Amino acid sequence: xxxxxxxxxxxxxxxxxxxxxxxxxxxxxxxxxxxxxxxxxxxxxxxxxxxxxxxxxxxxxxxxxxxxxxxxxxxxxxxxxxxxxxxxxxxxxxxxxxxxxxxxxxxxxxxxxxxxxxxxxxxxxxxxxxxxxxxxxxxxxxxxxxxxxxxxxxxxxxxxxxxxxxxxxxxxxxxxxxxxxxxxxxxxxxxxxxxxxxxxxxxxxxxxxxxxxxxxxxxxx
Length: 221
Hints:
Layout: H1 2-14, H2 17-32, H3 37-60, E1 69-79, H4 88-107, E2 116-120, E3 125-130, E4 133-143, E5 146-151, E6 159-166, E7 170-176, H5 177-191, H6 197-208, E8 214-220
Antiparallel strand pairs: 1-2, 1-8, 2-3, 3-4, 4-5, 5-6, 6-7, 7-8
Helix pairs in contact: 1-2, 2-3, 4-6, 5-6
């Protein structure tokens, strides 16, 4: 695995995409240890799988998302800074727990996977809606993979600045967790949903455990 990672990094930094993929595929065949005709297909399949999972994630880091248009909400998303001391296992469990609670909280205002939508118009306005009903709207600016959203009067002109990252199915917009919770709490009041003090308290407790936490939307076209 160490050999694979070294090869990926070297090729990602020093070669064109087409040449890198071809060279990496051949190198991975050597790493997997198969060269005979009887094992060629199996080795190539395994090498191609590793190529897709590793080099694909590297390339996504430099992808600029075209935010304009309509997006479907696919669930909440989180990002944990590498400065935190959580182990990989603990971070994974924490992430799953937080996203599940955030999903439940947002669902109270109709922001549910496959139902809610986020629309970014060319005129610099955005709308968050569910079932054809607007939940929130305002204006936005987008540059250098950063979107700045400013909500209208009903939300006391709340503003959120989020990082936009490409995913295989769309993108994620990640905001400072405390700002995102303010938006969700205000949305519950605006749409007249039942109070969820216990859920909010639980969410706030989770957010406070990790520094630099980001929380937001996972979106797909």
